[in-house]
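Re: the pair you flagged

First of the two:
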Amino acid sequence: MSIDEVAKKAGVSTATVSRVLNAHAGVRPTTRERVLVAIRECDYQPNLLARQLRTARSRMLLVLVSNITNPFCSLVVRGIEEEAEKQGYHILLCNSESKLTRESAYLGLLSGKVVDGVITMDAISCLPGLTTMIGDFPWVQCGEGDPGIDASSVTIDNAEAARAGVTFLAKKGRSRIALINSDMRYLYAEQREHGYRQALAEWGLDYCQIEYVDNLDYREGAKAMRNLLALPQPPDAVFAVSDVIAGGALSVAHQLGLAVPQDLALLGFDGVPFGNVTSPPLSTIQQPMHLLGVRSVQLLIAKIKDHRQPVVNEVLGWQLIERGSA
């Protein structure tokens, strides 16, 4: 609803509505109450920046991050922030934990034009709800994208990367390859499990053990590894869908006296820096984290400048990094 419609409903001028909104003196109490009732009935949301800048953009981007403590997310955000700065924008970061209630408060900034667009790094289960809340505003999905949604995305081919990772382990002679997977609310978890199962089938491997973790946490990786190693037939290789999880798994292998990779090969995912300093260094599938952030900003700003820009589902490359753990 516009301020003109509020004024018409209250039977006052738009200037009077503006004075009420800005808590100016000089408005009779009965008039002020009438205007406030009209505002509530119209569900009027004042355009915060338009009070000062009628046509200018805010040059602010909202970034919804599922878990900022995850090094992967932090490195993507660094790419987002650096590219935004280059183009004269700033970012507003929301650590959403993929909770729609938390995100909805931030997404209200779109309607108030406090932010010009949004980049999401969210669970696939949240995306339908986000689609409704974001509406026609410029939006880019980063890292976690549903091509069926009318919003651009920048991702990698998670299924193919996982398939290649398990194939790499199988070529090393590993026949009991287990998977430590994330919360299946995330599309990447579905896709990486699909690639894992596909590789097992291609290599004729019957051994299939999957441990699911609640979040990408070092302790969760350790717990999952303990469960796998307690099996009557433990794995001789473990593929973890996150380097953080793999780090926890590696610590348990050391605690139990297993030699890595001789007794147990370990492969992570993401390519975050700490994998270089583990003992042994962590083999991993490296995502282009900085580039994911950069391209997300570039697509979003292009959409902000011209809403007629087509939806782009961009798939970036990845790299399997062989170090000491596999």
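Second of the two:
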Amino acid sequence: MLYYLFDFLEQQYQLPGAQIFRFLSFRASMAIILSLSLSTIFGKKIINYLLAKQVGESVRDLGLKGQSEKAGTPTMGGLIIIFSTLIPVLLFAKLENIYVILLIVTTLWMGTIGFIDDYIKTFKKNKEGLEGKFKVIGQIGLGIIVGATMYFHPDITIRQKAAPDQIQQEEMIGENTVNYQEAEKSTKTTIPFVKNNEFNYSSLITWINPDYAKYAWLIFIPVVIFIVTAVSNGANLTDGIDGLAAGSSAIIVLTLGLFAWVSGNIIFSDYLNVMNIPNSGEMTIYITAFAGALVGFLWYNTFPAQVFMGDTGSLTIGGIIAVLAIATRKELLIPILCGIFLMENLSVVMQVGWFKYTKKKFGEGRRIFLMSPLHHHYQKRGLHESKIVVRFWIIGILLALITIITLKLR
């Protein structure tokens, strides 16, 4: 909103300094400062409100040290993250940008599903919360919305560098001349460690018949549904000890912010030889606001936590990360970038699968880990949760750096 206000003032009255709101870097800086301030200053007020309403966590007895002390800690703290993200976005972002609209829809959609789950757990005293099938239906619904929008919306395009005999668009930026073809609809994405660094989903069907390219949405949308479901569930499983999900997510989000900024900037995308995605740079505003909200939330969520994010926060975080990865065409880097989420997911799948297999074969279920998800395994081994969290953060930073390096490793 402030973007439009100052743009109007500059155009109509030539207000000195109003042009600064046209700079992405300024608006991104203001977004992270405001979101960080909102989450730290007003976060305490929200926590006090949740305490007054007795919105406390009901802790299941898992036999973990210090677990009983967490009983009664306010949950639904994801509201702090959502509130602190959306306000800066509404103030500083271009709200007609399709990527920003998609991220706002994702936040509200997944936030609502998580809120319903937390509400059932807290007020209905049902520890199981919202039935798993309804969560999955919600995740599939979001996947359909995101996939269909990415595939069909005319403003979601890519621009590819042109060979000398294919130049359709030449841009002079400073002393640099950048040659690109016209923006086009495409299902291309970034694939790591490959020379041309691109993969087209339509190739999964056009090998049968080139005319089937128009049916590529039958491949693309299910892939998007799978990514949204997997990442949101991964974030949900990671939210098990103080500060783990929020800190790990902040690292992932800031990395995706770098990708969004580079992909949307024609000079840097040309220099780094990465896919240029018109209008994607505006996601940087959303990403910085989201990152600031996560870091501000950590003020109250680090050990010992004064508030838990609940599914209101974890499902929202996972959904946003999935959509950011898809929008920046970096979803095939998720196994590396979101390696923490992947490890947590796999530990549960392996534990459950091995337990069922051994019970059927030997009549007695056996376990791979002392407990799953993975962070509980290390708790059972006697590590303090703060040490586990910091070590997971370090691994997350390492994975983020590897992800960034893949841009040039081909």
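The longest helix spans residues 98-123.

-B.
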